[in-house]
Design goal:
disordered N terminus; 12 strands; 2 domains; Ribosomal Protein S5, domain 2; Alpha-Beta Plaits; binds alpha-D-galactopyranose; about 400 residues; eight-stranded mixed beta sheet; four-stranded antiparallel beta sheet; single chain
Length: about 400
């Protein structure tokens, strides 16, 4: 069977009949006028299957783009004005190209993502167009499915199209990553922007974050489905806690280089190296480093299981990843621990883990096809009894990368 071309829609994939693109076009027409017709792009959100918090330590991660994401409609202007609207956010932002600085203005809130991309575009191409844009999505916001990377990537592909700059997809992903780290201020790795920009339908992306190389790993016909369990707990520590972990990993790397051996990134060390530096690392950095090197082993085992059709092995790697992310990396929360552990009690579940940064948001479970409702009922019952609220559930599929919607 031939794989669909990168970025092309997977025929018959659920989610392909979304009502959002028409709503985005309508809103654009209301706000800015219908003609000339704006250009519309879609970019997907992502699930990270395995490789928790490894990207900024140079490790391997394996996300896939989901069949939900963000739509961006846009039209250039020649008067230096930028106007941004969203179907899901109250705040409308009107600004001017000469008012944009190299750091996000907190008053711009969600619009910091497209403005960050716009700013990086200006640096890369020397072009500084005025533009009208409207965004809308069918992805739950701020839940760990990378709605922010989807906004960035949709903006980048849209601007590239409007300006005719023909920047390749990997370069656009890097540009979006710079928007996030330099303009928005989250010191994240490259995973989310690469996943959104480069994934193919029905494939996961095995990404080597130390050099940004990657390969597409087939996901179809593997004998499982992916159930997303959204705790709906807001990710309150997502920015501050995240940047703390980035700092801790940089410090652990510095100590390992000094005391054990000089390797270029933290994920390259072994468990024996981390043990050798245990005293110098101290309790917290030891746990962080132990997670990173152990997660690299789990990624290898999980990917091998996936490639050879051993779903149990893949699932066990996910469950081990969650435990380490919770105990050693300390980015889980009681809600995420509950949904993953209750899911794993079911005979239909191969493994489960939080996805994304953690601190709230979503977890995933690898389940036997067709068993979602049974697993959901069980998790829902125990979750409501313990927290008095209800999680949301979705079975998501490996959709494609960004695409122009006509
Ligand atoms: C967030 C970041 C990513 C990655 C994950 C954790 O999604 O944006 O770069 O670090 O958390 O794996």
């Amino acid at each position: 069977m031939t794989d669909p071309a990168p970025g092309s829609p997977a025929p018959g994939e659920p989610g392909s009949g979304s009502a959002v693109p028409a709503r985005v076009q309508d809103r654009f027409a209301q706000e800015f006028g219908a003609t000339p017709r704006p250009v519309l792009w879609f970019a997907p959100g992502r699930i990270n299957l395995i490789g928790a918090h490894l990207d900024y330590s140079g490790g391997d991660v394996m996300p896939l783009a989901v069949d939900l994401g963000v739509y961006a409609a846009g039209r250039l202007r020649d008067d230096g004005v930028i106007r941004l609207r969203s179907l899901d956010q109250q705040l409308a932002v009107d600004t001017r190209v000469d008012a944009i600085r190299d750091r996000r203005d907190p008053a711009h809130d969600w619009a910091g993502y497209p403005l960050g991309v716009w700013q990086e575009f200006r640096e890369w191409t020397g072009l500084a167009p005025g533009v009208d844009m409207v965004f809308g999505g069918d992805l739950p916001m701020a839940s760990g499915l990378s709605s922010s990377a989807a906004i960035e990537v949709a903006t980048a592909f849209l601007l590239d199209d409007l300006l005719g700059t023909e920047i390749d997809a990997r370069e656009l992903a890097l540009l979006c990553h710079r928007a996030e780290t330099r303009y928005v201020g989250l010191q994240c790795g490259i995973m989310d922007q690469f996943a959104s920009a480069l994934c193919r339908p029905r494939h996961a992306l095995l990404l080597h974050c130390h050099d940004g190389t990657y390969e597409h790993v087939a996901m179809h016909g593997r004998g499982f489905e992916i159930l997303v369990m959204d705790t709906r707990r807001p990710r309150t520590l997502a920015t501050s806690g995240f940047n703390d972990r980035v700092r801790e990993c940089a410090e652990a790397h510095r100590i390992l280089r000094r005391d054990v051996r000089d390797l270029p990134y933290l994920a390259a060390y072994s468990q024996a190296d981390v043990e050798a530096a245990r005293g110098a690392l101290g309790a917290t950095l030891y746990k962080r480093a132990r997670h990173v090197v152990g997660e690299m082993v789990r990624v290898r085992s999980g990917v091998a299981g996936l490639r050879t059709g051993r779903v149990e092995q893949f699932g066990a790697a996910l469950t081990g990843s969650h435990r380490s992310t919770s105990v050693d990396y300390e980015v889980s929360c009681p809600e995420l621990d509950l949904v993953t552990s209750v899911a794993c009690e079911s005979e239909h579940v191969f493994g489960a883990r939080l996805t994304g940064a953690g601190f709230g948001g979503c977890a995933i479970a690898l389940i036997e096809p067709g068993t979602a409702q049974q697993v959901e009922r069980r998790v829902d019952r125990e979750f409501s009894a313990r927290f008095g609220t209800r999680p949301a559930f979705m079975v998501l599929h490996a959709g494609g990368g960004p695409r122009r919607v006509d």
